[in-house]
Every structure is written in C-alpha cells, then in structure tokens.
Design goal:
alpha+beta, Beta Polymerase, domain 2, four-stranded mixed β-sheet, 15% strand, Polymerase beta nucleotidyltransferase domain-containing protein
C-alpha cells in the first residue's frame, strides 16, 4: 500500500479525534505482500479505553481512509507479546504524537517478547509432542 500525504493527514486527524498517541499500519499492507482479499491491520497506542461504539466509528473512518472494508483495529497495549512484536518490527508508523514514542514502544515490546519467549518455545515443544503422538496413534 502506498501511504500518501493525504492518508497520513487523515490518520493524524483521526488520531487526534480519538486521543491516539500512535497509529501503526502492520501486516500485509505494511510489508507489501498483499493479495486481492488482504485486510488492513491498524494498531494504535492510547491511554483512553474505547467502547464498542467508538471502535465501530473508528473502523468506519478507517474503511473510508483506506478504501477497504476489511479493517482490523488493535490496541497495542492489550496485544499479546507476539502480536505487539509484529507491529513494532514490521509496522509502518502513520502517526506519532511524540517522535520518541515508537522507539520506546519498540524497546519495551522486544523486552516483553524476550521474557515470554520461553513460554512460546514450551508451547511449540508441547504441540510437536502432541503431533507426534497423533501420527503414531
């Protein structure tokens, strides 16, 4: 996806309207590995808790901005370490209230991911074990 100045301005307006400190495009639209059915993944960082109606309004606004009715909205603060890592490593910043916020989030997210990595590995080993059991059953 090509991020135009118009898109950035509209995202900045949306961020200010809803109190977002940071907005990041991630997933296939950010990496350029899109296909006909690709959705638009957008992460935001905010201290404000959104209610359901606000999320619907934001999704509607994002649908108009990106001209795609398949929009997924994620609060980075509530995302799993694995998803948050995906956002900061492969994402494209569309709006940042403070230029240092993304760098701070990047460092904190990678630290959280590293702390959780042993659990991911344990889960992977357990799944490998279960798959082997299933194959020999």
């Amino acid at each position: 996806m090509i991020i135009t100045d118009d898109i950035k301005q509209r995202i900045a307006d949306l961020a200010q309207k809803y109190g977002f400190d940071l907005v990041v495009l991630f997933g296939s639209q950010a990496t350029g590995r899109t296909h006909k059915e690709s959705d638009v993944d957008v992460a935001y960082y905010s201290d404000i808790k959104l209610d359901f109606n606000q999320e619907v309004l934001i999704n509607t606004d994002l649908t108009v901005i990106f001209k795609n009715d398949q929009v997924s909205l994620v609060n980075i603060k509530r995302a799993s370490p694995l998803l948050a890592r995906e956002v900061v490593v492969k994402g494209v910043v569309l709006y940042a209230k403070d230029s240092s916020l993304f760098s701070q989030l990047y460092a904190r997210t990678l630290r959280m991911y590293e702390e959780a990595r042993p659990l991911f590995e344990l889960r992977r080993h357990y799944l490998d074990y279960k798959i082997e059991q299933y194959r020999h059953a």
